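Entry 14. Ran structure prediction on the chain below.
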Amino acid sequence: MWRTQYGNRTLEGSEAIVFAEALLSLLDWAVAEELDFYDLGIESFDNLTFGQRISALAIIGNGLLRKDIPTVRLTAVLEGAIAAVFEHLKNKIALEIDTPDFGTSWRELVVAARKKMEAEDIPDPTCNDLDEWETEVQELSHAILWDVDYKDAQLYIDFSPEKSEVLKDISGITDDYFLAIADDLTDKEAKARMKELKNLCRSIIKPS
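Output, structure tokens:
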């Protein structure tokens, strides 16, 4: 489970499906051995090694998609990994818009998830305004990540220890939020973790 502004929860229905599809697609980059070279503009994720990226993705995938997982402790690395999945989703939509032959499947997934959230003024899947879709994906992200603390590591480093502690208290950030690191999996461990995670994603997308 995951701690959000709406309480501890697991993604369900169309919200779970769009996240699982985006995560599965991101893992396909890993299988193609391109994940190391795929920067998503999220420092806390982009700066990880390949093994650490897979480790972080496995933790968030299980935490958000499985009800039998205890509530995961929030860290900058893990929240950055969630943000990375949504950035990848934005990239897939941008590619879909730029390549009409690809259809509207990614946009349809976002529409279904936003309808589940009872959102208003949702664009039609044929809409080609990328700004509109970035806003919709951001709303999906906000349902899990209520802030962007994972981007602020440098801010806390630049301040004095005293001021940094005050800021962390105000923001509700634990002492190890920026210090916790993901396990650096070996290639063998990473492949095994990816296989498990891909199976989990597929079970959400097409339940048996």
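The chain has one domain: 2-146+178-205. Will compare against last week's run tomorrow.
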